[in-house]
Amino acid sequence: MGAAAASLPPPARKLLLALVLLLLLAAGSLPHQASAGESMSFYVLLCKPHPEPALYNGGVLRWASKITDFRTEDEGNYSPAFVLYNMSAAIAYSFSCWVKIDGPASAHVKAKILTLESAASQCIGTALVRNDCWSFLKGGFALNSSSQTSVLYFQTASPNASTISIRSASLQPFSPEQWNQHRQDRIQLIRRRFVNVHVSDGNSSRVVGAKVAVRQITRDFPFGSAISRSIIGNKPYQEWFTKRFNAAVFENELKWYATEPSPGKEDYAAADELLRFVQSNDVMARGHNIFWEDPRYTPAWVKNLTGSQLRAAVAGRISSLLSRYKGDFVHWDVSNEMLHFDFYENRLGGNATAEFFDTARRADPLATLFLNDFNVVEACDDLSSSADSYAARLRQLTDGGVTFEGIGLEGHFGKPNIPYVRAVLDKLGTLRLPIWLTEVDISSSFDHKTQAAYLEEVLREGFAHPAVDGIMLWTAMGANASCYQMCLTDANFTNLPAGDVVDRLLEEWQTREVLGATNDRGSFNFSAFLGEYKLSVNYQNLTAEGTFSLARSDDTKHINVRLLSGPA
After folding, report:
1. Model pTM greater than 0.85?
2. 208, 311, 363, 474: least CB-packed within 10 angstroms?
3. Which one of 251, 378, 410, 439 is the catalytic residue?
4. Active-site entry in 251, 253, 337, 410
5. Half-sphere exposure of 254 toward its Cβ, with a 13 Å CA cutoff?
6. Domain 190-216+511-562 is of which CATH architecture?
7. Separation of alpha carbons 224 and 284, rounded Å
8. Is 239 an annotated catalytic residue?
9. Domain 221-509 maps to which CATH number in 3.20.20.80, 3.40.50.2300, 3.40.30.10, 3.40.630.30?
10. How far apart are CA 504 and CA 209, in angstroms?
11. Is 439 considered catalytic here?
């Protein structure tokens, strides 16, 4: 925030930030946001008779040269392409356009960027496009290296799509400072709140110069990590974990192959111990998962069941799991990775997933039910889990009577494409469902320092996005001090670089303590992160103490304190 904004009183600063964000959103996100009174919106899949105007007035594409007939060696059909010059690796590019095809009723269209120096192409956005209307494609990218000449082009794998038509294309560059400022402005609006403490005496007269101390007790935003049975009885691990995280997910201990390795022989011992640990430390827990559609992780004995036997087994699984843990887990991942796999629907029919959700809802009505899948924000090339594919699957199940409450995006990243991550979150955010990044890590193919740098970018992007309600890291440490892809500490619980990133962000994203004094109007104003707080007010020999909570709201939180002499 600039010096002029910093000098404004809190309501004026809040208004300025709101105007800044509204301008950014008007220019940079989707062209429509669902109003608060609408039911779940599928605007992400909306097709319009006419394209809307280009965002940013087209950005740098206003001056780009066009190629009317562009071809590359990879398969697909192409449309006019844009030639771009002097593209910088230090810049984040936000891309959008409206797309229509000739030929099949619908097909996925990819936008790609080709750098001529390296002859390497990169997918930068996708959309599920129709032949009778215009669909919105939103994406983004940052180049691996600067390029003197690049080509932005469009591709569909459908052999019957003869033409891709593009309208209102826009490519807007952002410097690192602009990108980060946008994050900070959004954090001020969605993760923090302005507070006004007004102090008066027993005669209701304002008190000037009263000392005010505010200390944060708990954080509102859920930020946690996976844990495994290796944390049981491991005091150093437990202390390291509880010092940092307010949320947990069990890595494998709730999965069907772990709780019922053979038919009828259930074993919840490890899950029970993990649950006791998190509950005794006031840590919320996600339930992961009820069913996993990937046959590789389906219990071996279940794979041999068919028909009524399989139906009885899945009914027993839901009944056993959710009756045992009713009310203990805030979320359940009901059908894990169903965009990529279909073990149960392939054997039980297309309504199997809808039946799973319906049964789970009746068994544990207080839990929020999620779909959960990979490569939604991680990879642009995986059309099975594009934002549009995710939304289309949600709509298909919603039309079948399923009530959805949460979107789970795993977040197993290689090198993250942060502008693309933001574009996907923008699109899925129009569904107005809570989005959680559920299994965030960075590939072990990178060294620890690079993992940490990439992790920081992903966490900052997720925390700054208004549609993201929580972030979970997939960093459970096993008995041999190993992790799935990325560890936060070594075997002695000394931070690795990724652990240092977590600690630095946790410190940045909380309000440890605020100290000050009431002004000539008897008020003390400040901004703080959402959460629970302890408040203490002192004036001469008078003291008042209490607690208050800050939840997300556009309104300033007003707290009135009366200093009374004698017993309160």
Report:
1. yes
2. 208
3. 439
4. 337
5. 31
6. Sandwich (2.60)
7. 9
8. no
9. 3.20.20.80
10. 34
11. yes
